[in-house]
Amino acid sequence: MNIKRALVLINLLIFSSCFKNSDTSQLEGFVMVKGGVFINENSNLFGKNAFINDFYMAKTEVTQEEWEKVMPTNLSRFKGKDLPVEMVSWYDCIEFCIKKSLLDGLEPYYEIYTDSVDVFNTSQFDSLKLAVRIIPKANGYRLPTEAEWEYAAGGGQLSKSNLYSGSNTIEYVAWYWRNCGDTILTENWNYKILENNNGRTRPVGTKKPNEIGLYDMTGNVREWCEDWFESYEVPSGQFRSQRGGGWIGVENYMKVSDRDYFEANGVGPDQGFRICRNKD
Question: What residues make up the domain containing 49?
């Protein structure tokens, strides 16, 4: 091998290594969710030929440390860098995704038009009704769709058909109303009892992960999804979807199959999110 050819090969190897390291650093903290049909038998979409494409999902809910690197104000009730950010609206999450994408040199997946009203938003509670545009091929951060969330929470292609994300025993995987305070509660659900027990969010990633390495998909904070919520009783355009339950919630609201919703401008101390990215 002559010297000129050797130098070319060395430069190619260096370039390839730099590109590979750069790509890995961008995806640090994410799980690559292998797509497919729903195999969790407790899923709403099991046996319905629904198909999810490959995508990346953050291992944990967005923490306050992550939030404060991007956003000017942290209004969370329970302060702590390892605690999930809460008291965030759906619009706040969209803004975070845009700003973090720009900071990381990615093309934002969303655009917000603060001077336009979303004509599809028919909520009587949402006073903002901001228009949001999706750029489907962008490589920036985004919220999961409700179907993606349920698929990933249910264990994807490694699913063991657990009721909760990662287990049939809720205590193994979730901070919820019984175990999120000073003592373990055994009474029927009562918010005053929960409050007196100092119920609160807990540091992310301190319970067991699910089959594909995602933490806190059950409990801690409810997680915003991208979609409009829609059911037989609730038409599209009124509420945005939420999944996973939170520290305030009872066991039934923690199941992988449970669906929830809230107006897009609403906030709560058990309400946060996690981010995703397209694979390609």
Answer: 28-278
